[in-house]
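REQUEST
  id: r-88c1
  op: predict_structure
  target: Photosystem II reaction center protein Z
  payload:
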Amino acid sequence: MVISSNKFLRIHGGIPDEIPPRCISSQFGLSEGSNGIVHLLVVWRITSMILAFQLAVFALIATSSILLISVPVVFASSDGWSSNKKIVFSGTSLWIGLVFLVAILNSLIS
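RESPONSE
  id: r-88c1
  status: 200
  body:
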């Protein structure tokens, strides 16, 4: 069975040694004479921002879940509010900060 080079690249995600550099630059969307380093840095920055956004959204969801369970438990316990007031306020402050962080990161990547 013979596999064409394009199909090989899609299956394995790598670049074989036999492909000349001009084909590699066209594979990544670079034109002749363009600065490939700048293009790769921009792609890396966008990927990093998307990863940071996803982590911030995950942290917001995790914090929301923890607060959803812990705040009613604190209010229902007999001496819970007076002893756990600082923890509830810290969690709420963290949640508000994460909401603003997600909003800022969302505006940067979209």
